[in-house]
Specification:
The chain is mainly alpha-helical.
Length: 29
């Protein structure tokens, strides 16, 4: 993953804590 993409994702996740939580759950599986 490119750095720009990671930065965008981080900003997106910060703005969407609920989606971040669901993504973390998915990543832990």
């Amino acid at each position: 993953m490119s750095t720009d993409c990671e930065n965008l994702l981080k900003k997106f996740l910060v703005l969407n804590p609920t989606k971040r939580a669901s993504l973390e759950v998915r990543g832990n599986k």
